[in-house]
Amino acid sequence: MSICICHPLPYLADPADYFALVRHAPGAVLLDSGRPTAERGRYDLLSAWPMAQLTAADGEAANVFFQRLRDALSLLGPSEAPADQPLPFVGGLIGYLSYDFGRRLELMPNSAVDDLALPDAHFGLYAWALISDHQLQRSQLVFHPRLDEAERQRLIRLFSQPAVAREGAPFRLAAPFQADISAATYEAAIHRIQAYIQAGDCYQVNFAQRFRAACSGDAWHAYRALRAACPTPFAGFLQLSDASILSLSPERFLRVHDNQVETRPIKGTRPRDASPEEDRRQADALLASPKDRAENLMIVDLLRNDLGRSCRIGSVRVPELFALESYPNVHHLVSSVTGELDANKDALDLLAGSFPGGSITGAPKVRAMQIIDELEPTRRGLYCGSLLYLDVRGEMDSSIAIRSLLVKDGQVACWGGGGIVMDSEWQAEYQESLTKVRVLMETLEAL
């Protein structure tokens, strides 16, 4: 088996200086654990100059696109990490699936307008990465054996030089963010969802609203400001040919490591408070809330079913239920579902059976997605999709792209939403949708 080649670099807890060296390169991508402030993520991973770029074509079925991804990994060829080097990635695919890729997996209506025109999926095939391991405090270049010696030496020289600030024009908004729908429209949508629940169509629907603002300047400048304000363990920055993806997500979707599968759904939110006593009261209220626990449990059951499609029979477990995770702006209720990948399945089979994540659809999933399409006037695009890597060994990690923004065509868009159940109060849900993205909007409005 071919072993990847590693070249040590000075350890940096914040990947910004290293990423600045490739920020303007084709296919520049950063998967960011939010260190040193965020503490749950172990690795940062960045790369650029992909060997190939794969975009889901109009009308291309999900299984056909996923087979193209498998073929790309086969083209790159096998590789392993050195025996003494725990590495999350040794060469492979990095990119995103938009929420609307789910239309290629399930039968869906086409009511929501696609006004952002973001491809449903896009991946680069990367033969190298710069990986920082925050547990071992080690940064290094990792080269797939197929990458030629001249390119390896070029990258070593590039990352051995002092980082120089290469940001473009400062990021600015032309005006504050505005919601696409009114509070009255939001209220009507919640009542419609509750009518569907009462009629027996569903148990829970995740409803979201979109906020937009005209903007100019360098999206990387915006990402740096957002990262400082809201560090999270599943953040990321992707530079596309005509758009930038900025994600400050706290939520893991699916991880595959040594054929072991984990998903960590978030369902249940309370705002943080400057007063330690009030902040603790908010956290305790979330932990004790029958409504939030019921919502979380519904999604745990949904995900147990989704993982069961691709995991060995009897291997699916729930090792963690209703845990508290706290971030700069919110407390979250989080659970964990695990399993062992079936011998006849791979990570792409797991994605096909589980995407999009149940925590951002509702239950049952397909009916909830149909209701979302009916009531949300525009397609979600990136929001509630997934940023992910999948390497040639079959190792994968992925986020749910909440707390995420799209900069495209002179505007920036972000979304806030939450799970709606029968006893939801629309005013409280409306405020929760604002709470989740307020720190993002206020940070950019202050630039």
Care to describe what's here?
The chain is of the alpha+beta class and 447 residues long. Helices cover 29% and strands 30% of the residues. It is built from 10 helices and 23 strands. The strands form 2 sheets. Strands 1, 2, 3, 7, 8, 9, 10, 11, 12, 13, 19, 22 and 23 form a 13-stranded antiparallel β-sheet that branches. Strands 4, 5, 6, 14, 15, 16, 17, 18, 20 and 21 form a 10-stranded antiparallel β-sheet that branches. A hairpin with a 4-residue loop joins strand 7 and strand 8 (138-143). Helix 5 packs across helix 10 (426-445). The longest helix has 20 residues, at 426-445. The chain is globular. The termini are far apart. The mean pLDDT is 95.
